[in-house]
Specification:
By secondary structure, the chain is an alpha/beta fold. It has 3 domains: 116 residues, no CATH class; 97 residues, Alpha-Beta Complex (Conserved hypothetical protein from pyrococcus furiosus pfu- 392566-001, ParB domain); 146 residues, no CATH class. 44% of the residues lie in helices and 14% in strands. The strands form 4 sheets. Strands 6-10-8-9-7 form a 5-stranded mixed sheet. A 3-stranded antiparallel sheet has the order 1-4-5. Strand 2 and strand 3 form a beta hairpin. Helix 12 packs across helix 15.
């Protein structure tokens, strides 16, 4: 397995890090566009825009410019980078630049390097394998290989299969990926849940299949792994906006409550892209509506909008959870106006200091709830 240390030899001006290796290097955070996502990926600001870094990808930095490459391409890219002329270090700060200027050769070298990187054509490898055949195959001709295929003998799989079978929708049924073996047997690599669901019905005799020929079972298993790892899960905001476009009742209710409170649902999960008044915790809002009703949920969102008007709601999710806990189980003689006054004793960022170093949403909510109630009691005492 290739490690970043193997690529670092004799490259003092090139920094390399493979996503997943610890610790994260000091030079990386300045290039990050937001934090690490729940699925482990992160985004970097490159000269060509944002680049997503998946676990196992390699990040290369030279003279303040970063690139992201898959592990199999990293070595060749670094070799090419080593052969390119170094931009060097002029050691000229803002004051010296005004006095002496920047060396013309350095500026020209930088321009040439940028022009070369811009003009470089993307590297493309020849297609692997042979083209498949697209066929409608009878369900009885298909089978699975339990040596690599995931087990369906569990509650989650049974529920999924029953759900697909109960409301089978051809619009959601993509072709199954199937291997035609040397003995002409047909083995499912991807799509066994659709196959099992269709088998439970008597009105679906066949399914569309994308049929490949592989050399052996090991190659089938590798394709099974790649097919499942290549899927990019939809993030919570994309899911919400898709549901809203589909006129989903829950999404419409969330949109109405958020809008009435004077807030907006952000389009990006990256906090660096948010504007004041934008929130992203749609799942928490849905849970609050389900558990405590729209009235409490709306009141909490309105308090957030008023207390932190004009501020970027970086810790909005934790503050929301804390306020829901306070307002859903209010103390005797609870005073909403006093709670508002307590919230306004600090900015969003100052409230955020209460959760520094805490991991897990629940622990952050509990810490903030305690801090807000302490401020509330101080207001009561005053």
């Amino acid at each position: 397995m290739m490690h970043s240390q193997d690529l670092m030899a004799a490259s003092a001006d090139i920094h390399i890090w493979k996503h997943g290796e610890l610790p994260m290097p000091d030079w990386l955070p300045q290039h990050m566009a937001g934090g690490i996502a729940k699925n482990g990926t992160l985004r970097l600001n490159t000269e060509f825009g944002h680049a997503r870094v998946n676990p196992g990808d390699v990040v290369i930095e030279r003279c303040g410019t970063v690139w992201v490459r898959p592990i199999e391409e990293a070595s060749g890219f670094v070799d090419d980078l080593r052969k390119a002329p170094s931009l060097g270090n002029t050691n000229v700060g803002p004051g010296k630049a005004r006095q002496f200027g920047i060396a013309r050769d350095t500026k020209n070298s930088a321009k040439r390097a940028r022009r070369k990187s811009t003009e470089r054509r993307p590297q493309r490898f020849p297609p692997i394998g042979s083209q498949p055949s697209i066929e409608w195959l009878h369900l009885g001709r298909l089978s699975i290989d339990g040596s690599y295929q995931r087990s369906t003998d569990n509650a989650a799989s049974r529920r999924l299969i029953a759900s697909i079978a109960a409301k089978f929708d051809w619009r959601l049924c993509g072709p199954l990926v199937v291997s035609r073996r040397h003995d002409d047997s047909l083995v499912i690599i991807d799509g066994q849940h659709r196959w099992l669901a269709a088998s439970k019905r008597d009105d679906i005799p066949q399914l569309p299949c994308c049929v490949f020929r592989y050399d052996n079972r090991e190659e089938e298993a590798r394709m099974f792994i790649l097919a499942n790892r290549a899927r990019k899960p939809i993030n919570r905001l994309d899911d919400y906006f898709a549901a809203l476009a589909a006129a989903d009742e829950d999404a419409i209710e969330i949109q109405q409550i958020v809008t009435d409170a004077g807030l907006r649902v952000a389009r990006s999960i990256s906090s660096t892209a948010w504007s004041p008044g934008e929130i992203s915790f749609t799942s928490s809002i849905a849970t609050s509506i389900r558990r405590f009703g729209p009235a409490i949920t709306s009141a909490v969102l309105t308090d957030i909008a008023v207390a932190f008007a004009g501020q970027k709601l970086l810790h909005g999710s934790s503050i929301f959870g804390a306020l829901v806990g306070i307002m859903s189980r209010p103390e005797p003689d609870f005073d909403p106006d006093r709670l508002m006054a307590a919230l306004q004793t600090r900015t969003v960022e100052e409230w955020g200091t209460c959760v520094v170093g805490l991991s897990g949403g629940d622990s952050r909510v509990v810490a903030l709830q305690g801090a807000i109630m302490d401020a509330y009691r101080e207001e009561s005492a005053g």
